[in-house]
Amino acid sequence: MNGPSGKSTGKLAGSDYARQALLPEGFRDQLAPKAEHEASLVRGLVDSFQSYGYDRVAPPVVEYETSLLIGAGASRSNAMFRVMDPDTQKMMAVRADMTVQISRLAATRLADAQRPLRLCYSGNVLRTKGSQLRPTRQFVQAGIELIGSTSLEAEFEIIKIAVDSLAATGIQSLSLDLTIAPLVQYLCDTHKVSDSDRALVVEALNAKDSGALSKINAADHADFTQLLAAAGPAQPALTVLRDLELAGSGGQLIARLGRLIDMLEAQLPLLSVTIDPCESKGFEYKSGIGFGIFAKGSQSELGRGGRYLVEHPDGHTEEAIGFSVYLDSLQGALPAPEKPEKLFLPMGTSNKDAADLRRSGWRTIQGLTEEADPSKEALRLGCSHILQDGAVKPA
Questions:
Q1: Interacting residues of 67 by C-beta distance below 8 A, sequence separation 6+
Q2: Which residues pair with 238 in a beta bridge?
Q3: What are the start-end ranges of the E strands in the chain?
Q4: Residues 101-146: pLDDT tens digits?
Q5: What gap in Å lies between CA 106 and CA 155, rounded to an integer?
Q6: Domain regions of the chain by residue span
Q7: How many CA atoms lie within 13 A of 266 on its CB side?
Q8: What angle do CA 131, 132, 135 make, to 5 degrees?
Q9: How far is it, in rounded angstroms, from Cα 194 to Cα 188?
Q10: Which of 5, 217, 265, 378 is least surrounded by Cβ atoms within 10 Å, i.e. has the fewest?
Q11: What's the pLDDT score for residue 5?
């Protein structure tokens, strides 16, 4: 492989090559055909979102830090890269999640737009560190947000669009894992769990550690232990949750979850549905039902969503629900993309013929020099076919 100077990159000294090619941990070059595959998936997802009436918006990669820390953004504070604006001397931050930006748009530029407001988006997000399941620190996020509806049908619409759009990419055997993060805080309030023990309760439930729960100084551990037993297939888990016989907002949340499961089973019967009422990591800002979507064989969730609150400048809040797809996880759950077939056009091919071939779907590589053996040149350039005697032939 030759560089612009004609020098083979394979002959560069190790330290010289590393200096040019080495990237920070958690970042990567996306090469062909994966880069095109990712772009194609984004196009397909956004097309699906728009077919349901969601309007595409494109907020900037960088905003003032204060804008990105409002509402749900507070939970992403430690994940954001920060830079100083040389113009205003104000601190700016690179987005770590696009949902926060959609909330800002809904609360400001689109505050007077008719509700419910339906928006979709796609773009790169950047985080200060990766996780065990997602070590990359930069990845593409695509999603939808439905703002201004308290209806249970809003949850169903978001989940249905998420399932339909992922299935359209070729994903098989999707499963939905529902969570109700506010329930844990409700139980902590009910049992007057101290702030210090509250953090231990959340940690123990996330880790599914019943032993750790028994050491916490709470008036009654039975309800928390019962949450551990309520993780699993939807209907058995729902029965366990109903046995808690909770009043107030806790009981209302469980009842809402039950109605949603009934809707899903009736209208999306092939979707596998589970419940994990203990899972709150990553759902800290959810105000109601949250969910993650998985595919058989995938190591991490393809995306997640749920209900949250949009904070307006005057202090009032607005109900919203959304869903985000993580493109790195989606690509990992799909078969590796095949290299596209390319057609070699020997030097002298007319512009009209070349344009006709591209319109018919071919990706063409134009020969730039006269070649004694055009077929050999076609193979060298990675072309599967060649134009010979006015006809397309295998190279």
A1: 73, 104
A2: none
A3: 55-56, 62-64, 82-84, 91-94, 117-126, 138-147, 174-179, 232-233, 272-275, 290-295, 303-311, 317-326, 342-345, 363-366, 385-388, 391-394
A4: 999 999 999 999 999 999 999 999 999 988 777 788 999 999 999 9
A5: 18
A6: 23-170+298-329, 182-278, 342-394
A7: 7
A8: 60
A9: 8
A10: 5
A11: 46
